[in-house]
Predict the structure.
Amino acid sequence: MLVVLAALGLAGTDLGAAADALTGADPELVALAALLYGLGQTASGWMWAVCQRAGGVVGLPLHQALGMHWMARGACELLPASLGEAVRLGVVRRHPAGARAGGLRIAGGIAGYKVLDAAVTGAAVLAAAIAVPLPGPAAGLRWTAIGAVGVLTALALAWRLGAGRLIARLLPDRARRGAAGLADGASVLVRPREARQAAALGAAAVALRVASLGALLAALDATPAAAMLAFSAIVLAGVLPATPGGAGAREAVLVPALAVAHGIPTATALAFSVAVQIVALATTLLVALPALAWLGPGLRRGERDAAPAPVPAG
């Protein structure tokens, strides 16, 4: 921990005070934060299920899609660089609905989900930065959000105007078929009804996530008014998730931002950052492990059922 803090320029933080703040957190508010985090992730999983259905993964029940989402979130918490998303692709492919749709449609649905999620999150960060200008090192979040929303808007507009089809015509036949499968999977981006539903669920997930952070701040006797700034800083740190759960990069952005913008002691801010990771990991594993135990055997059976029958010898 000392090496990490030194690398982040936080070596002067009183680790004893941070540990005291963490162990002295209000357990009821921590439990509330975990509940709100779980509800937010469930809304996000529902959003992903909408994107998969719009992309042609038909016949995947919502309760199973939510279980798969939690399994993928568990992998993301434990693996670096969002490698857990490969788990999401793999578990859907083992479901009969995913086997029928194919890997390209599933991957396209994940891409559509990521684009919409980034757009909703960027818009929330941008709205917060405009409503309450962020001081100090957090000031750049406004331009980061503006840039992200601008790029996503330009890409969505180009897609709707047919840029995808134009690019596809320039590709070799084999690559063109692959691109067509991905584009079909990302159909949520060109289907207004499903896009609106997914965006509404994404907005609900953001609101619940911010409420969770507010409860966690209150549990540490810090001002819940810093919740939106904390969310924005975590989003910025998550741009380069090189470590499991974004640990390390999050502290580099979050601790100085909370200290400068809201006068929160660095020890308390560090305790909050650690608590964010603990709540996310504990809540995710609490749901993901039962989901794995519930869905895992069925997914393995589905994989065997989908395997081609052996050809008799002779």
Remarks:
- Confidence is low (pLDDT under 50) at residues 1-9, 303-314.
- Residues 24-289 form one domain.
- The radius of gyration is 21 Å.
